Amino acid sequence: QVQLVESGGGLVQAGSSVRLSCTVTGRIGSRYVMGWFRQAPGKERKFVASMSWDGGSTLVADSVQGRFSISRDSAKRTVYLQTNNLKPEDTAVYYCGMATGTDAHTVVIRTSAYDYWGLGTQVTVSS
């Protein structure tokens, strides 16, 4: 069974940086997309970043462009979300997701396309 476990969240001050991690366990295929989403209280889950299974394509949401980036360590089966210059409006629960059976160089932004999700990690940014 595939499981995704996020870590790295916490309470930080505005302007800080945090690196979130998502480690995948269980049996997975070779074709999948990893994505990061976030959900603020009372709001829907929104796309943050995505990376194709071959690492050849990445996409970051316009709202965090220039501040957030996605990367991976395949040997550790871990995907990272580097968040820099955090703002109070970045406060949310950050979720990691996996969409399976995708083509090369594909990134996925639709929440409904993801097959597996982690439980999330809270990031709170104080002003």
Give me the secondary-structure topology.
Elements: E1 3-7, E2 10-13, E3 18-25, E4 32-39, E5 46-51, E6 58-60, E7 68-73, E8 78-83, E9 92-100, E10 116-117, E11 121-126
Parallel strand pairs: 2-11
Antiparallel strand pairs: 1-3, 3-8, 4-5, 4-9, 5-6, 7-8, 9-10, 9-11
Contiguous helical run count: 0
Strand content: over 45%
Mean of the pLDDT scores? Answer: 94
Rg over alpha carbons: 14 Å
Categorize the overall geometry. Answer: globular
Q: Give a short account of the largest sheet.
A: 7 strands, mixed
Order of helices and strands: EEEEEEEEEEE
Helix amount, in percent?
Answer: under 10%
Give the beta-strand count. 11
Give me the secondary-structure category: mainly beta
Distance between the termini: 40 Å
Unreliable stretches (pLDDT < 50, length at least 5) are: none
Quick summary of this structure?
Helices cover 0% and strands 50% of the residues.
Could you name the key traits of this structure?
seven-stranded mixed β-sheet, mainly beta, four-stranded antiparallel β-sheet, 127 residues, single chain
3D structure, described in words:
By secondary structure, the protein is mostly beta strands. Helix content is 0%, strand content 50%. The protein has strands at 3-7, 10-13, 18-25, 32-39, 46-51, 58-60, 68-73, 78-83, 92-100, 116-117, 121-126. Strands 2, 4, 5, 6, 9, 10 and 11 form a seven-stranded mixed β-sheet that branches. A four-stranded antiparallel β-sheet has the order 1-3-8-7, with no helix packed on it. The N and C termini lie far apart (40 Å).
